[in-house]
Amino acid sequence: MPTGALQGLTVLDLSRILGGPLCGQMLGDHGADVLKVEPPQGDDTRAWGPPFQDGVSSYYRGLNRNKRTQFLDLSQPEGQARVLALMEQADVVVENFKIGTLEKWDIGWQQMQSRFPRLIWCRVSGFGADGPLGAWPGYDAAIQAMSGIMSVNGEAGGEPLRVGLPVVDMVTGMNAVIGVLLALQERQRSGLGQLVDAALYDSAIALLHPHAPNWFMDGKPPQRTGNAHPNIYPYDVLHTGSIPVFFAVGNDRQFQLLCGHIGCQHLAQDVRFASAGQRSVHRDTLKPLLEEYLAAFDGAQLATDLMALGVPAAPVQSVDDALQHPHSLHREMVVQMPGGYRGLGSPVKLSRTPATYRVPPLARGDAFLPD
């Protein structure tokens, strides 16, 4: 079985909850040997349910495959001595302790960078270590609120809404992976490790496209627009004769194709709708005109036909429909492992060294061991 692009890399995952564990799992999926160290009571997310299997939540299982697990109390001398021995073997440490905690125990980045000069230390935190909010704890939903994400999510005229998944935690975990890989590349030249600083706040601010560049240019505070794009139209959920469909019409040609297919060619010639900018300005007029024609079509079939024409459109599906979709299965985005485990597959596809799924969640291990 292929072992992945990161074969030979050893990762000590001291993190818990989401961002750090996702980083460790992604590295493990691509071949790294990952040892997860949990406190004696276990990662908090083991209890984040239902659903549960054998007393452990689906939430935990979704973030901790391709890892072996060891339980250590890092506040005690025995745990500290053990984790130091593990750091000596590791290429990468991933941790998301409250800043200052590991330093208090003399096993933080400040103490380790001279002792293990090749070690890459990935710190996932809420706000980073310094600045006005430095060392504050961070939580996905709170940072969605603070970063402006909630302010642009929701119906026009409605209340701000949290995005319905932990987008900040997840993108921070992915940014942590990017940072680790960049540091590994640089270590090939210098022979030295470094600190990878992945903060939820930074990741949330970095997600503010196109709202941030819009504000940089015109100074107008972005507003909630529901499902509609602030710059493009029709880039919105529209009603059909059956299920709602999301249309992502990004240029004049696509709009002309859409109008031709649903029988309203005259709208593509109307000066109010003939260009992308005018369609965006006159969206409130355009939407009901399009929906009048869309009412004659079955949404699912319409979306398929439009995609074949080159017009981006998609039925609004439920999570279970998406996970059972033939293309999700073809793309190996649903994986199975022994013991009844099912999880989301790696979104990164490599042609020669693809991701592999070797170690189910909850596997115990005493050290970095070969598969």
UniProtKB/TrEMBL annotation:
Gene3D superfamilies: Crotonobetainyl-coa:carnitine coa-transferase, domain 1, formyl-coa transferase, domain 3. The keyword Transferase applies. GO terms for molecular function: transferase activity. Keywords: Transferase. The keyword tRNA-binding does not apply. InterPro entries: CoA-transferase_III_domain, CoA-Trfase_fam_III, CoA-Trfase_III_dom3_sf, CoA-Trfase_III_dom_1_sf. It comes from the Bacteria. PANTHER family: SUCCINATE--HYDROXYMETHYLGLUTARATE COA-TRANSFERASE. This is CoA transferase.
